[in-house]
Specification:
Blueprint: H1 8-32, H2 36-79
Helix pairs in contact: 1-2
């Protein structure tokens, strides 16, 4: 996700909302309809939201580490 990185927190928030809402939507879907396909789709969403969240979190932490390392190296260059 390039483009300044301002949308990344919103994407992470969307993943959290998805993880929170999906179990309730699945229960509602089972009570309204007995569709096995819809239930399987929502189970897949329930599994993939945390995976996507963890991948996004790892990317943010990796970028934060690179930024911190760059700051430390630049600070070391100033003292030399």
């Amino acid at each position: 996700m390039r483009g300044g990185g301002h949308s990344e927190p919103l994407v992470m928030l969307g993943y959290l909302v998805g993880m929170t809402v999906t179990p309730f939507v699945r229960q509602l879907a089972y009570s309204v309809s007995d569709s096995a396909v819809l239930g399987q789709f929502l189970v897949m969403c329930e599994v993939l939201f945390p995976v996507a969240f963890l991948i996004g979190l790892a990317g943010l932490l990796f970028r934060a580490g690179r930024w911190l390392l760059r700051r430390l190296v630049m600070r070391g260059d100033e003292t030399a």
